[in-house]
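so my prof wants the structure for this chain in the tokens format not the other one, which i didnt know existed until like an hour ago. anyway here's the sequence
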Amino acid sequence: MTDVAPIHDAAELTHYIETRYHARHREQLPPLAEMAERVENVHFGEDDVPEGLSAVLRRMIGELEVHMKKEELILFPAIREGGGPGIENPIAVMRADHDDHATEVAEIRRLTADLTLPLGACGTWTALYAGLNEFISDLEEHIRLENEVLFPQFEPEGVAHG
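here's what i got, hopefully its the right format
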């Protein structure tokens, strides 16, 4: 991707995250969940079927939507106004959500043998794993921008993040 995040201006970065990542996740996940369901149904009982993947993706749709709404309606407007006392509390909640998203990504990788297609995988299965690879890359960069670039600008010095 050739676009570069505006890392020096927090307000610009929040707009960038919303337009680049929030919008993209909302586009990506529903068709991926549908493809996963199709692969699970059509190939039921076969080796390497990512059984349960569609349920993980549907759960992620809901979890990510709640997370992104909290950012869009609460945290990002506060950041655009310069932060202020107590902003570290919603940031801590977002960091905890990010940890949950990373757990879900680990589950996707487990169910898909780290996105390894079986020999002779159909077109839907192939498109599913390609789409999952793109989604995971986008989500990981989204989380990295927030955790490593945006949030530290509004947290007290020396706060440890795990």
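also thought this was worth mentioning. The chain has four helices and no strands.
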